[in-house]
Design a protein that fits this description.
The complex is a heterodimer of chains A (283) and B (346).
Chain A (H helix, E strand, L loop, with lengths): L7 H23 L1 E3 L6 E3 L2 H6 L2 H33 L3 H12 L6 H12 L4 H8 L11 H25 L3 H9 L4 H30 L2 H7 L6 H12 L2 H32 L9
Helix pairs in contact in A: 1-12, 3-7, 3-9, 5-10, 7-9, 7-10, 8-9, 9-12, 11-12
Chain B lengths: L1 H18 L4 E8 L5 H11 L1 E8 L2 H9 L6 E2 L3 H9 L3 E2 L29 E13 L5 H4 L15 E4 L2 H11 L9 H18 L2 E3 L2 H7 L5 E5 H10 L3 E4 L7 E6 L1 E2 L5 H12 L1 H11 L6 H8 L27 H16 L1
Parallel strand pairs in B: 1-2, 1-3, 6-7, 6-8
Antiparallel strand pairs in B: 4-11, 5-8, 5-9, 5-10
Helix pairs in contact in B: 6-7, 6-13, 7-13, 8-9, 11-12
The chains are: A mainly alpha (283), B alpha/beta (346).
């Protein structure tokens, strides 16, 4: 077996070229500014100081808020769906999970575009409303459209990670709970839900992180008025050409994401210690 | 073992099959929805070439792509971006001896500020920026206010505004009576406040290309649009009309240029010449709806029984003192981009 360990080496080389080097470049850009001809760049913290501007902070706050709402809605919808799937016959489970993942086979841009024709003022929903004589509603370019787009795009991650844990749950524990006199609701609250928390937590990570940094969904469904942190980074790179400031914002985002991961990890650990045995593990 | 050799042999056949073609390759970088693809096919056939055709959706995106090291043979950016590329030595001079069709280009599109001696660029499409409005719901009298109609409370919530700092500040500066290329900080500040007020009171929707479909569908009443897009939406929805305020607007030219690091300069010239050919220029202008720079085609399509006879937006105002071409200014550009973000994030 030892001889095979050499096979890992190309992968390590690949990783360092395509993952580590770009990251180092971002860090370098974030801490530097364009210098003069003798010294092409000089170190500075200005890029970070620049971010502490009420306008940018408000954009950050809005991003966190939208991502949080998206995550909560994803749990509220995703948990019952996952629970339902985990409790049907095995071959139907496979089919349902396939149905959940099918939208992910299609490019996210296309799926988001599809929502435009559903939500727009002359779109599917509004045509239907006016046909049955109801007043139309403006949905495009609103918070509603953006949150809907995000929930739609990221919900499968929540369903899948909760389902994986629920499906592996030891059924004997549920039987034991019934034997000890608990009813269905008590069993769910005291046994099933606590044991499924690891799945919920990784679902939160998988939904919250992309939601907080996406820029395509707010751009398409929220219009140019809808500025989230991802859009700010995009503008800095593409329109303004301020790669240094853009990199600094990316680093700040990376830090926020890291902190939230540490928090969820910690929470995850506490849960695992409580569930000393029997809980389905995701990984 | 035998099987492996067969597989290798087949693979080998494939590889030689690919490399045996002696077609020359041309890399073109253009705006999306900005050419009749049949024209590309025709070029490939005539010159036994292969065209790799890439799209961008803003001059800035094109510039970022170039900066990341991609190589192209022909680019079709706008005036101010060409000025920037020339200043940064990123373009080579065209060999006009190879462009036999260049004589057909309209005179007033030549020797503009961005390429004063007409050395680097050959016009592709041109036009201006104006307002598309619904003739049933917008009164002619209100239009007399010019750009200021965008701040008329009657139309609050009924406006699409173009999501680009250049166009936004162009409108604000023109409405205030300044040059759209102003470098005066006080004037820019005033324009910023003009836009802030518009944003606060009018609840405009900031759009890009989605404005085209939305205006055809008649969702809102007024939109800031490029003349070529206006031609298209008016064709599709007869309630709409095009209006260019008297305070002046942006007169623009998108032109073909060859980067200094182009790999196939000769073929690039052939491509540019091909697009300036009357027949191909007609196919493009008919397909895209933007105004052609080729005089004979322009006369044809705007003349009697022409495809664009009577289309106001197809004939952008020429030689009008208050219409200007954008100039490149790195400092102002960053300032405007920052201010525009603040307007939107308000």
């Amino acid at each position: 077996m030892r001889t095979f360990s050499n096979l890992v080496k190309p992968y390590i080389a690949w990783m360092s070229v395509f993952i580590v080097v770009p990251m180092l470049l971002i860090i370098l850009y974030a801490f530097t500014t364009v210098g003069n001809e003798v010294l092409p760049f000089k170190f500075t913290l200005d890029n970070f100081i620049k971010f502490f501007d009420p306008v940018f902070l408000r954009v950050l706050g809005k991003s966190l808020q939208v991502a949080l709402i998206t995550t909560v809605i994803s749990i509220l919808i995703g948990y019952p769906v996952a629970y339902f799937i985990a409790n049907v016959k095995e071959n139907i489970q496979t089919l349902l999970i396939l149905l959940v993942t099918i939208p992910m086979w299609i490019n996210m841009l296309v799926r988001t575009y599809a929502w435009i024709s559903i939500l727009s003022d002359n779109g599917l929903i509004n045509s239907f409303l006016s046909k049955i004589g109801l007043p139309t509603v403006t949905m495009m370019y609103t918070d509603f459209a953006v949150v809907l787009g995000m929930v739609y795009n990221f919900l499968p991650f929540m369903i899948l990670s909760i389902y994986t844990v629920l499906a592996k749950l030891d059924k004997a524990l549920i039987a034991a709970s019934y034997d000890l006199g608990a009813n269905r609701i008590q069993t769910f609250i005291k046994v099933v839900f606590p044991l499924s928390l690891p799945g919920v937590i990784s679902g939160i990570t998988l939904v919250f992180l992309p939601a907080v940094s996406t820029f395509v969904i707010p751009k398409f469904l929220g219009g140019g008025n809808y500025m989230l942190i991802g859009n700010l980074i995009e503008t800095q790179f593409i329109t303004v050409g301020e790669w240094n400031f853009g990199s600094a914002i990316s680093l700040i985002m990376a830090m926020i994401i890291m902190i939230s991961m540490v928090i969820t990890k910690k929470f995850d650990k506490n849960v695992e210690e409580n569930n000393s045995s029997g809980g389905g593990r995701l990984w | 073992m035998k099987k492996i050799f067969i597989v290798l042999a087949i693979l080998g056949l494939f590889l030689t099959g690919c490399s045996s073609s002696d077609k020359e390759t041309l890399r073109v970088f253009n705006w999306g929805e900005y050419i009749d693809e049949d024209v590309i096919r025709a070029f490939e056939k005539q010159y036994n070439a292969r065209v790799i055709y890439n799209l961008f959706d803003s001059n800035e995106m094109m510039y970022t792509t170039l900066q990341s090291g991609e190589v192209f043979d022909v680019l079709i950016p706008s005036d101010y971006m060409i000025e920037r590329l020339i200043a940064e030595n990123k373009l080579q001079k065209l060999d006009f001896g190879k462009l036999s069709n260049f004589d057909g280009v309209m005179d007033h599109l030549l020797n503009l500020e961005f390429d004063p001696n007409q050395e680097y660029s050959a016009p592709y499409f041109w036009g201006n920026v104006g307002l598309v409005y619904n003739t049933n719901t917008v009164s002619e009298k209100d239009l007399e206010a010019g750009w200021e109609i965008l701040r008329n409370p009657t139309y609050a919530g009924r406006i699409y505004f173009y999501d680009s700092e250049r166009d936004a500040f162009m409108i604000a500066l023109k409405a205030l009576g300044y040059s759209m290329n102003s470098t005066n900080e006080a004037e820019i500040q005033e324009a910023y406040e003009w836009l802030l007020e518009l944003d606060a009171n009018m609840n405009p929707i900031y759009v890009s290309d989605d404005v085209i479909d939305n205006m055809i569908a008649g969702i809102k009443d007024i939109a800031v649009m490029y003349s070529g897009d206006a031609t298209y939406v008016i064709e599709e929805n007869e309630d709409l009309a095009y209006f260019v305020p008297e305070e002046g607007t942006n007169f623009w030219v998108d032109a073909m240029v060859i980067p200094s690091d182009a790999l196939n300069v000769d073929l690039a010239h052939k491509f540019i010449n091909f697009l300036l050919d009357a027949e191909n220029a007609y196919a493009n202008t008919y397909y895209v709806g933007y105004t052609t720079p080729v005089q004979s085609v322009f006369d044809d399509v705007t003349g009697e029984d022409g495809d664009y006879e009577g289309a106001d937006s197809y004939v952008p105002r020429m030689d009008y003192a208050f219409d200007e071409v954008f100039r490149h200014n790195e400092v102002v550009k960053k300032l405007l981009a920052d201010l525009w973000f603040r307007v939107k994030a308000q």
